[in-house]
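Lab notes, practical 5.
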Amino acid sequence: MRRTIFYVSDGTGITAETIGHSVLTQFDGIAFDTFRIPFVDDEEKAHGAAARIRNAYAASGVRPIVVNTVVDPQLGEILATSGALMLDVFAPFIAPLEAELGTKRSRRVGKAHGLTDFAEYEARINATNYALTHDDGVDVNYSDAEVILVGVSRVGKTPTCLYMALHYGVKAANYPLTEDDLDKLELPRRLLPYKPRLYGLTIDADRLAQVRQARKPGSRYARIEQCRHELALADKLFRRENIPALNTTHTSIEEIASKILAALGIEKHMF
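Output from the prediction step:
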């Protein structure tokens, strides 16, 4: 079974897509074709989005599903003419909150992703720059690092560091365990002063070989035997040094970041 999903928003559509994706993962056995339609902030764009949704309905013969974060109810009514199942993300929360807070919502478009706090924005930018300059052991001065991810090459250290920087303002560095490090089976000396900040990442050998094969086809680096060898030694090192570790094979980057921050006791909220 296949169903078509549209994420429609008067802003970037990130909120609609994030929430919608989280809900859709609860349904097994259905393939979803997803489309994001951002910046639907006037009637012309709303009519255009409705026409696109209607065309998808006509082509498939199955009613599309629209996950909607458009603030203006008039634009929502236009979208509803498409005949799709309309899921308004904000609707269940607005009335109870208005009653509880004693005030009406402002209906300001794009507020969720607006640049409302310059200090938070600067923290994210600084953390992102930090992650980039401390990627793969390029800069090994970790005195300012809040998190240092360790693991063999291609287990997801870099994207996790960047995600934590962009969404939490966390200064995250990463150190790739080399064959020399693994053969010695001891923590590199430069990491010893920062042991409480270390967190290990690992992955299934088959998946690692697949990722490495895409990067360096036919190389020793990508062979399954090499991947198994490196991962086994890294696991021994983590256990010997009592470094917490997480297998990233079937875990989203959002969950990886959340688990790392919780394990290290870093209490920062998503921007």
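Observations recorded by the TA: Strands lie at 2-8, 31-37, 65-68, 85-88, 147-151, 172-176, 198-202, 245-247. The CA atoms of residues 2 and 31 lie 5 Å apart.
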